Amino acid sequence: MNADIRVALVGNPNTGKSTLFNILTGLNQKIGNFPGVTVDKKTGACQLPDGRTAEIIDLPGTYSIYPKSKDESIVFSVLADKSKGLVPDLVVVIADASNLKRNLLLYTQIADLKIPVIVALNMMDVAQKAGIKINVDLLAKKLGVPVVPISARKSEGIDKLKTAIAYANKVALQEDTIDVQSLAPGIIAQISSELQVDNPYIALQLAHQHETLSYLSNEESDRIEALEQEHGFNSQKAQASETIARYNFINDLLYDTVTKPQAAHNESVSNKIDKILTHKVFGFVIFFAILLFIFQAIFSWSAYPMSLIEDLFVWLQSLAAKQLPAGPLSSLINDGILAGLSGVLVFIPQIAILFALISILEDTGYMSRVTFMMDKVMRKVGLNGKSVVPLIGGFACAVPSIMSTRTIENWKDRMITIMVTPLVACSARLPVYTLLISLVVPNRNIWWIFNLQGLALTAMYVLSIVSAVIVAFVMKFVLKARERGYFIMELPVYRMPRWKNVIFTMYDRSKTFVLQAGKVIIAVSIILWVLKSYGPGNRFAQIDQQYAQPRYTKTMTPDSLAKVIASEKLENSYAGVFGHVIEPVIKPLGFDWKIGIALISSFAAREVFVGTMATIYSVEGDADKLQSVEEKMREARNPDTGQPIFTLAVAFSLMIFYAFAMQCASTVAVVYRETKDWRWPAAQFAYMTALAYTASFIVYHWLK
Amino acid sequence: MKLSQLSIGETGIVKEFTDLEMSVKLMEMGCLPGEEICVSRIAPLGDPIAISVSGYQLSLRKFEASTIVLQ
Fold first, then answer.
1. Residue A30: its pLDDT value, please?
2. Least CB–CB distance from A68: residue in B25, B55, B64
3. pLDDT greater than 80 at residue A518
4. What does the alpha-carbon distance between residue A579 and residue A583 come to, in Å, rounded to a whole number?
5. Which residue of chain A comes nearest to B56, CA vs CA?
């Protein structure tokens, strides 16, 4: 970016930092009422009143320069690492005027780095309502920096802030806050001279953070470690005395600049809402009602747009089939690319709906109450209060749910949530279950009201959530925590959601999914297309030749002939060959090579099972009609024994396999995107496959 | 007297901490010695708790609250 000055936005979570960023840059991005939503480094350009352009960097929200998570450690790196040239020319510290004391802690730390600073005093309207009076001019004078009162939500004071940015000093003029040298005199002096750090506070931070700072060389880090031993430097004790010194400074500062109403204010609206929303009974009732609503919304609201997308692709495919000359190219575009693309885009409605609802829950402040209420239960099984939403979302689709785990700051909790979410029975498993259940479970009632088929389906759903909880519990012991688990979390006041932000979140998440996961899914679809459309040697040519003989062309309709050929070709394709190859492996589960083909092709998406079964059994008429597939599968006989293939044992074994196996390229892709390490999706794939195999094996032999 | 022993609506003034690592985090969030804390609510299942401190609401687990000693 060609910018004249570089400005970093720094502030506590929930201070409206992201809202301000959006107003300044016009480039909207994710805002949450939740600590740590801003994960990626976000930048945007801002036109200043004097005609220059400023590059604005939105840094993760943090309560202090001492990081509690990986996100937060970015703040100090950006502000201190001179080597990468990321150090901003100016820092805008956003402080919540209604809670100035805690917000100024971060300001004093930033100020001591001696980068030019401006304070943006946000939520002035909230402070005024609460009866807090701030003498802005005196505050600015005492700090030695410009202080600009703003209201980011109402876009008030933004022009003044831009002017302040434009005319900001090039040198840091802020007053010293505390006597940094006295915190650790010996070590600060030595680090300053040995590493040529001219700022004592940066030298102190190097002593504190050298283990996690990537810009220090190993020698430098080792040297600092040795100095710490030499001077008996205790990081936590030094940090504690620093924090106390800083709050003393802040108390002095606020003594004559801020006046608060003496008498405790009337019970706030937020408190009244909390009394209901975190109530022993109503709290849970409301929460489960909201979950049910989310679940319903993802299922039913998405049905119509999803079928529209599907119809669009059916239309495109028929168009392509007509316009393009028949041959490999047409087939690649139709069955490879378009089919893959449709498999990606069909998820968009569900992703958009889930994220719209989640962003409303976060924006209003309700999500932190969910965490507050559910923490105790979820902690017992190794999860986090915030894991509830991804797990419930998993009933619709694991893809948006895994993307939503970003709200979980604790690394271990988040990883466990990501690892178990695909176990929850997603909507793509539904057609597989429906088909297999109607095949083997009689459609009659027991105990008057319970339909057997319905019971079987419910059992599959219950099984999925139980297995997710059990696996989470096991992983709690397997995974090593990177950080000590804390639950010290701000409960922000309730606010109205920002609708613009809700819409942007929908757009942003859908785009991310299409661009990131889409690549992998299309690649997998093309590979599967190759496997299904080509066979070894001249087998395909032989099939064509065989069915070109008059005894077939004369006796069969062209339509059914084409179906028989397609079925034969699939058998002899590479996918069919693979099916035969894996048959010995899947035989103990009761599966034959035909099911093997379905398992392989299901990897693009589970629901492909039905379509593949239709092709294998060369179903007449509409291949998507469950009944016609079901009929064919019911008639299917083992050629050796003459017994039906889809017995109760096989069908349940197959359902259990689909319940546990990771047959979803989209999920694999999104897990990689969220963890940025191939080992996570690999481990997930491995454990789920092992679980699926074992469980299917047991079920098959138990029911046989 | 520890913070975890207070019931809803009761207030106390922070005296000291029993866990150094936890104290650093708590102090950053405004829970400093001399600061007044009021227990505003307890989660429906008895843990964690929500306190109001230096003008805002903070939630923490009972175990974490037990490291805060009150005057």
1. 42
2. B25
3. no
4. 6
5. A99
Q: Is A429 helix (H, G, I), strand (E, B) or coil?
A: coil
Identity of the amino acid at A81: D
Contact status of A284 with chain B (Cβ, < 8 Å): yes
Sequence ranges of the domains in chain A: 5-166, 181-259
Which of A 81-110 lie inside 8 A of B, CB atoms? 98-99, 101-102, 105
Q: Is the dihedral of CA A291, A607, A414, A457 positive or negative?
A: positive
* Whether the predicted interface score ipTM is above 0.90: yes
Question: Pick from B23, B28, B40: which is nearest to A64 by CB?
Answer: B28
Q: Dump pLDDT digits (tens) for B10-64.
A: 999 999 999 988 899 899 998 999 999 999 999 998 889 999 988 889 999 999 9
> Under a CB-based contact definition with an 8 Å cutoff, are residues A137 and A207 in contact?
no
Cα A15 from chain centroid (whole Å) = 23
Q: Answer yes or no: are the C-beta atoms of A520 and A604 closer than 8 Å.
A: no
Nearest-neighbour CA in chain B from A378: distance (Å): 11
Question: CA of B32: which chain A residue's CA is closest?
Answer: A244
- CB distance A544 to A65 below 8 Å: no
Q: Is the peptide bond before A49 cis (omega within 30 degrees of 0)?
A: no
Query: Which of A184, A181, A207, A183 minimizes the C-alpha distance to A194?
Result: A207
Which of B26, B48, B56 comes nearest A372 by C-beta? B48
- The continuous run of DSSP H or E covering B36 comes out as strand B36-42
Q: What is the dihedral of CA A312, A318, A320, A325, to 10 degrees?
A: 180
Residue with tokens 């209901």: A276
Rounded CA-CA distance B5/A456 in Å is 48
Q: CA A139, CA A129: separation in Å to the nearest integer?
A: 20
d(CA A131, CA A453): 62
Please name the residues in contact with A447: beta carbons below 8 A apart, sequence gap of 6 or more.
none
Work out the end-to-end distance of chain A between its first and last CA atoms, rounded to an integer number of angstroms: 67
CB contact under 8 A, A491 and B55: no
pLDDT at A465 over 80: yes
CATH of residue B10's domain is: 2.30.30.90
The torsion angle over the Cα atoms of residues A280, B61, A122 and A111, rounded to 10 degrees, is 180
Q: Is A610 left (phi over 0), alpha (psi -120 to 50) or beta?
A: alpha
Residue in B with minimal Cα distance to A12: B29
Termini Cα distance of chain B: 7
Domain ranges, residue B25: 3-70
pLDDT in tens, A604-628: 778 778 777 777 776 554 555 556 6
Other beta carbons less than 10 A from residue A355's beta carbon: 26
A69 and A483 Cβ atoms separated by less than 8 Å: yes
How many structural domains compose chain B? 1
User: Of chain B residues 6-65, which have a CB less than 8 A from chain A?
Assistant: 20-30, 32-33, 40-41, 43-48, 50, 54-61, 64
- CB nearest to A489's CB, from B22, B45, B59: B59
Instruction: Provide the pLDDT for residue A361.
Output: 87
| Residues of chain B contacting residue A278, judged by C-beta atoms under 8 Å apart | 41, 43-44, 50
Chain A residue closest in CA terms to B17: A240
What's the confidence (pLDDT) of residue A266? 57
A45: amino acid identity, one letter: A
Q: How far is CA A465 from CA A230, A289, A472, in A?
A: 54, 18, 11
Interface test with A, best of B49, B57, B63 (most A CBs within 10 A): B57
**CATH architecture of structural domain A5-166:** 3-Layer(aba) Sandwich (3.40)
